[in-house]
Amino acid sequence: MTSRTTQTVVHFSTPFRLPDFDTVQPAGDYRVDHDEEVIEGASWLAWRRVGSFIHLPGIGMRGLTQQMVPINLADLDAILEKDKQP
């Protein structure tokens, strides 16, 4: 089965906490990878997302280690929505 990874960058204006993760993450830009696999039809091609991962630390931040942490898109959307609230 054919697969691909697409990348996006998300921005947090305030520190945030990932579900099931002990450490509060600082505000900033973070890369998110989306793993997708192809769905083939008779006359069309589509992609289904099978996993998403956020890279820690954020872009331009220093850390002792770099991690790719799996994240549920609903959780990511909720964290981003909370970040937009005053």
Can you put this structure into words, describing what you see?
The protein has 86 residues and is mainly beta. The protein starts with a strand and ends with a helix. The protein contains one helix and six strands; from the N terminus they run ββββββα. The protein has a four-stranded antiparallel sheet with strand order 1-4-5-6. A two-stranded antiparallel ribbon has the order 2-3. It has one helix at residues 73-84, and strands at 3-12, 16-17, 24-25, 28-40, 45-56, 67-70. It has one domain (3-84).
Chart the SSEs and their pairings.
Blueprint: E1 3-12, E2 16-17, E3 24-25, E4 28-40, E5 45-56, E6 67-70, H1 73-84
Antiparallel strand pairs: 1-4, 2-3, 4-5, 5-6
Keywords:
mainly beta, four-stranded antiparallel sheet, 86 residues
Helix content: 10-25%
Largest sheet: 4 strands, antiparallel
Q: What's the order of the H and E elements? A: EEEEEEH
Sheet-strand content, in percent, reads over 45%
